[in-house]
Design brief:
The protein is of the alpha/beta class. Helix content is 57%, strand content 13%. It contains 8 helices and 5 strands. It starts with a strand and ends in a 6-residue tail after the last helix. The chain binds thymidine-5'-diphosphate (TYD).
Length: 204
């Protein structure tokens, strides 16, 4: 089973992913968590370029780099684990490319990004995607409290507003996407996630 988490930076994904991982592990499932971009040595190297490069990265090159990192992760880690029956949890997946590079950067048309996503994943789709929805302003406050901003996070307010609207659009057209109000307490959000998961979990 493949579960992905999406949302703008600072939306609270990491906290929920940790909780879901413990919950599923305690139930007896084999659970693997990967972050995107990352999750394999090559993908982590690409992550380093994407988040810390001092050079300008053209939006098309940026989209291809995120996709390259993803292609490696899907082919070498995710597919084999799914074939063994494990549960894979992803801290971001291709919806982030649609929202950030497609809606946010606006330099590559969204339908082209969607084709790129299908190519990079060889049409692998999550069984369920939790979109943790948070107002871009609130998310930016949370980020500032936590740590220094990376290259993506420095893109500015208007950018994050477009990204956020991109996720909203996706959530309205993708049935696998569950949008949750992430301004609620972490426990409230977690209880909704569990409610949705219970209906979909494979038999042990
Ligand atoms: P990360 O530190 O993992 O952010 P977060 O903890 O908020 O998930 O950095 C990933 C950054 O890369 C984040 O700003 C979102 C961005 N991103 C894209 O722009 N496109 C993508 O396809 C992916 C996977 C991430």
């Amino acid at each position: 089973m493949l579960i992905s988490f999406e949302g703008i930076d600072g939306c609270g994904k990491s906290t929920q992913i940790e909780k879901v991982k413990s919950y599923l592990t305690e139930k007896g499932y084999e659970v693997h968590v990967f972050r995107e971009p990352g999750g394999t040595p090559l993908s982590e190297q690409i992550r380093e370029i994407l988040l810390n490069s001092r050079d300008e990265i053209h939006p098309l090159a940026e989209s291809l780099l995120f996709s390259a990192a993803r292609a490696q992760l899907v082919a070498t880690r995710i597919r084999p684990l799914l074939a063994e029956g494990a549960i894979v949890i992803l801290d971001r997946f291709y919806d982030s490319t649609t929202a950030y590079q497609g809606y946010g950067r606006q330099a590559v048309p969204v339908p082209d990004i969607e084709q790129l996503n299908a190519l990079a994943t060889q049409n692998l789709e999550p069984d369920i995607t939790f979109y943790l929805k948070l107002d871009p302003h609130q998310a930016s406050e949370r980020r500032r409290k936590n740590r220094e901003e990376d290259r993506m996070e420095r893109a500015g307010k208007a950018f994050f507003k477009r990204v956020s609207e991109g996720f909203d659009q996706l959530a309205s057209r993708e049935e696998r996407m569950v949008a949750l109000d992430s301004s609620k307490s972490p426990d409230t959000t977690f209880r909704s996630i569990v409610g949705h998961l219970e209906k979909k979990l494979p038999r042990l």
